[in-house]
UniProtKB/TrEMBL annotation:
Cofactor: Zn(2+)
Domain statement: Consists of three domains; the N-terminal catalytic domain, the editing domain and the C-terminal C-Ala domain. The editing domain removes incorrectly charged amino acids, while the C-Ala domain, along with tRNA(Ala), serves as a bridge to cooperatively bring together the editing and aminoacylation centers thus stimulating deacylation of misacylated tRNAs.
Cofactor note: Binds 1 zinc ion per subunit.
BP terms from Gene Ontology: alanyl-tRNA aminoacylation
Catalytic activity annotation: tRNA(Ala) + L-alanine + ATP = L-alanyl-tRNA(Ala) + AMP + diphosphate
NCBIfam families linked: alaS
Protein name: Alanine--tRNA ligase
GO molecular-function terms, A-Z: alanine-tRNA ligase activity; aminoacyl-tRNA deacylase activity; ATP binding; tRNA binding; zinc ion binding
Organism annotation: Pedobacter alluvionis
Any single GO CC term annotated in Swiss-Prot or TrEMBL for this entry: cytoplasm
InterPro entries (UniProt xref): aa-tRNA-synth_II/BPL/LPL, Ala-tRNA-lgiase_IIc, Ala-tRNA-ligase_IIc_anticod-bd, Ala-tRNA-synth_IIc_core, Ala-tRNA-synth_IIc_N, Ala-tRNA_ligase, Ala_tRNA_ligase_euk/bac, DHHA1_dom
Superkingdom assignment: Bacteria
Stretches assigned to coiled coil: 722-749
Entry's family note: Belongs to the class-II aminoacyl-tRNA synthetase family.
Length: 872
């Protein structure tokens, strides 16, 4: 079976068991502060496990893109080294939300593996949770008994909490699990060692392929376990491992999932795969990493220097380093794998082929930048002098942190020089950085305290900005030393930050409306609307009025709706390739990032502004459609954003059926006329292939035009009421240019006069010709020209000038080349002299300058100059 056939067989099998097949969630996580990336198939269903969202389908199946490179689930350093770890991988999963449990999950997993995939039963081992006395958890006898119906007892193995109790993190849904392992060794190897002893022993040929997690607990902050509202099944089967087993390979990388890319790399590098372990690892790293890089970029996360952007940049640089060091790719190459990858996932994850050109461009730009950095780092290493043949740990860490060098590359270059690396010092520096980073981002989140029982919270803010409601639950959070509270309401009109639109603020008033607490922000967490306050109401159990700040909401809506009009106008003016890559919408302005490979010209910006303002003046009524079947919406030509997770039913926002039609959960104006006017204030580059427009609307746009009018009036007044401002300004510029030329001519004449005067002031000291003078020139360039002229006229010159330009003291030091060779350094000298004027400076060994704050010290500078002349 091919990889595509294996994937489809899984989904078809569970469809036959009445499972609803859902799309993969984006690999980049939004609205969950505990995660940057989807690292398990269950992430998108976390709110269902916790009972915080309505269950639409009690049985679900999918293939989920996952990424594990940070936090608890961190496989990065094993990737490429072994045969079965990956950064991005597919997790095939079947799910039950309060429907079936252990009996069906176990029966179906065995049926699929042995009857559909035809894996020999004797190759399979299963595990069950043996219990944990500390946790007060008993042995999972139920799972054991179900397995006995299908599997010989010698192949049913107990597992400890580490291996057979699945937890997503320190807190959250969890439960006992039952793994399925396959023994891929040869018959000869099996005869020597019993496979049961190798399960969960990190043997490369005895591997876990499927995990049935029986979700029944929620781990609280204090470590205790709380029963979930209902019991669920969460299964995950590693697609790449499954393909390896079914295609009878000894490595995931030998399957048709990776071999097309590996063979392409081998062909382009001129190195055959399978001939050398180091080059094999490099090819595996590249083939693996390009998948993670490409899908994260396609889902809307660009490489950057912080958070999720830094993680993906780190993965990309790791791939480039391996290519550079072991495959001799000195020019960008990784990006050439993107088209191959996009074609491979066509029909499975089409978001990649839809954005192939964009993703390839971003990867290319990152490669170019990093190869430049890598070259700089190598030059820095070549200049480094090891003490007693040991490269300091701090320097090795600097190479890693600043220039992206892996420690093994530093060790390799050190060995070539006969040096070693202080690995202990390196690890200490690395640990310090991680500890500092962890401390800076640490958030201490308490458990939810239930006030009123209710299945879930409801958002009513599309229709109401003020409602009567109750508090369902609250918790305390602490970040960067500040304590706040998070509150969940039974019904809320507050829009939670999402899709670029900021969260609402407002007030939570008690029923008498005499006392209130301010809502400072509203965010989403796993589908839950969470309100932030600095204090709690005195009585949490009463009725409350939830009141949104209406003025702020209206201004935010103006900018959000204008963003939709802008998006449509950009497509109309620049082309259909334009897609949203990020946005920020608040009460003050809008920021819109979009895919485009060239600067937007002034003419194009003007055209875009005209189109948007025309649509505003047309006062187009909002057409809002809720609960539209996703497929119907797509077929209607709606714009869907890459990297967003859409359910089976979506909300469509339309301003003119033939102009702007988008899927959007945000709040909007009732008609475009409310926006008032639209003004672009800036256009810039964000990253390779991504541009950014910032704009203002409504009262901010009005104020902008008023300010412009005021400034224009002031300019007219300065020009004596000129009716033709352009002509008047041009006349001033011409006159200014003429005066500058006259001043330059006068200055040149003054420099020529001065140099002939000053040359007679030379004092010979110990064979050195000293000039120490205060110069009355008001141009730094003229002073520099004078110094260089005197250098040409006077041998063995040691020159110190002091100056005062617009009340600011300055120092110039010039040395002849002969004095520089003798060890004098103008940059060092000027820094010392600069202390006299409370300043500093620097420059080159033969020419340097300094500035300061204290003109009174200039006399001391000239007096001190002679002290720098060597005595012999």
């Amino acid at each position: 079976m091919t990889a595509k056939e294996i994937r489809q067989a899984f989904l078809s099998f569970f469809e036959s068991k009445q499972h609803h097949v859902v799309l993969s969630a984006p690999i980049v996580v939004k609205n969950d502060p505990t995660l940057m990336f989807t690292n398990a198939g269950m992430n998108q269903f976390k709110d269902l496990f916790l009972g915080e969202a309505t269950i639409k389908y009690t049985r679900v199946a999918d293939t989920q893109r996952c990424l594990r490179v940070s936090g608890k689930h961190n496989d990065l350093e094993e990737v490429g080294i072994d045969t079965y770890h990956h950064t991005m991988f597919e997790m095939l999963g079947n799910w039950s939300f309060g429907n079936y449990f252990k009996k069906e999950a176990i029966a179906w997993s065995w049926e699929l593996l042995t009857e559909i995939y035809k894996i020999p039963k004797e190759k399979l081992y299963v595990t069950y949770f043996e219990g944990d006395e500390k946790e007060g958890l008993e042995k999972d006898q139920e799972a054991y008994d179900f397995w006995k119906q299908y599997v010989d007892e010698s192949h049913i193995l107990p597992g400890n909490k580490k291996d057979n109790f699945w937890e997503m993190g320190d807190t959250g849904p969890c439960g006992p699990c039952s793994e399925i392992h396959v023994d891929c060794r040869t018959d000869e190897e099996k005869a020597l060692i019993d496979g049961a002893t190798l399960v969960n022993a990190d043997h490369p040929q005895v591997i876990e392929i499927w995990n049935n997690v029986f979700m029944q607990f929620n781990r609280l902050k204090d470590g205790s376990l709380q029963s979930l509202p209902a019991k669920h099944v969460d299964t995950g089967m590693g697609f790449e491992r499954l393909v390896r087993v079914l295609q009878e390979k000894t490595s995931n990388y030998d399957t048709d999932v990776f071999q097309p890319m590996i063979q392409f790399i081998a062909e382009k590098s001129g190195i055959k795969y399978g001939t050398d372990e180091k080059t094999d690892i490099a090819m595996r790293v590249m083939a693996d990493h390009i998948r993670a890089i490409s899908f994260v970029i396609a889902d809307g996360q660009l490489p950057s220097n912080n958070k999720a952007g830094y993680v993906i940049r780190r993965i990309l640089r790791r791939a480039v380093r391996y290519a550079y060091t072991f495959l001799n790719f000195k020019e960008p190459f990784l990006n050439q794998l993107v088209p191959l990858l996009a074609e491979q996932f066509k029909g499975v994850f089409d978001e990649l082929i839809s954005q192939q050109d964009f993703v390839q461009k971003v990867v290319l730009e990152e490669e170019v930048s990093f190869l430049r950095t890598l070259s700089t780092g190598i030059q820095r290493f070549e200049k480094y002098q090891a003490t007693d043949g040991m490269v300091e740990g701090a320097f090795a860490f600097e190479l890693s942190d600043t220039f992206g060098f892996p420690i093994d590359l530093t060790e390799l270059m050190a060995r070539e020089k006969g040096w070693s690396v202080d690995l202990v010092g390196y690890e200490q520096a690395l640990k310090k950085q991680k500890d500092d980073s962890r401390a800076a981002t640490a958030i201490d989140t308490g458990d939810w305290i239930v006030v009123n029982t209710e299945d879930q919270s409801e958002f009513v803010g599309y229709d109401d900005l003020e409602i009567e409601t109750e508090i369902l639950k609250y918790r305390k959070v602490k970040a960067k030393g500040k304590e706040q509270y998070q509150i969940v309401l039974r019904q809320t009109p507050f829009y939670a930050e999402s899709g670029g639109q900021v969260g609402d603020t407002g007030r939570l008033e008690d029923h008498s409306r005499q006392f209130w607490v301010d809502i400072t922000d509203t965010k989403k967490e796993n589908g839950l609307t969470v309100h932030f306050t600095d204090i709690l109401p005195d009585n949490l159990e009463g009725k409350f009025w939830a009141v949104v700040d209406e003025d702020k909401r209206i201004l935010t809506e103006d900018n959000h709706s204008a963003t939709h009009l802008l998006h449509a106008a950009l497509k109309q003016v620049l082309g259909k390739h334009v897609n949203q890559k990020g946005s920020l919408v608040n009460a003050d302005y809008l920021r819109f990032d979009f895919s485009h490979f060239a600067k937007v010209t002034d003419e194009e910006l003007a055209q875009i502004e005209v189109i948007v303002n025309q649509k505003i003046r047309q006062n187009i009524k909002l057409k809002e459609q809720r609960n539209v079947p996703y497929q119907d919406a797509i077929e209607s030509g709606v714009t869907a954003l890459f990297g967003e997770k859409y359910g089976d039913f979506v909300r469509m926002i339309t301003f003119d059926d033939h102009f702007s039609k988008e899927l959007c959960g945000g709040t909007h104006v009732k008609a475009t006329g409310q926006i008032g006017s639209f003004k672009i204030v800036s256009e810039s580059a964000v990253a390779a292939g991504v541009r950014r427009i910032e704009a203002i609307t409504a009262d901010k746009a009005e104020q902008f035009f008023l300010d412009q009018r005021k400034e224009l009036g002031q300019l007219k007044a300065l020009l004596n009421g000129s009716k033709d401002l352009s002509a008047s300004v041009q006349a001033l510029l011409d006159e200014n240019s003429k005066l500058k030329k006259e001043i330059e001519k006068s200055t040149i004449e003054r420099v020529n006069t001065l140099k002939h005067e000053i040359v007679h002031h030379v004092r010979g000291i110990n064979g050195i010709n000293l000039i120490a003078e205060h110069i009355d020139l008001q141009s730094a360039e003229a002073i520099k020209n004078l110094a260089f002229s005197l250098k040409d006229m006077v041998d063995n010159l040691f020159l110190v000038f002091t100056t005062e330009i617009d009340g600011k003291p300055g120092i110039t030091v010039m040395l002849s080349d002969h004095l520089v060779k003798k060890g004098l350094n103008a940059s060092n000298i000027v820094r010392e002299l600069g202390k006299e004027i409370q300043g500093g400076g620097g420059g080159q060994p033969f020419y340097a300058t300094a500035g300061g704050k204290n003109p009174a010290g200039l006399k001391a500078v000239l007096e001190k100059a002679e002290s720098f002349i060597p005595s012999h």
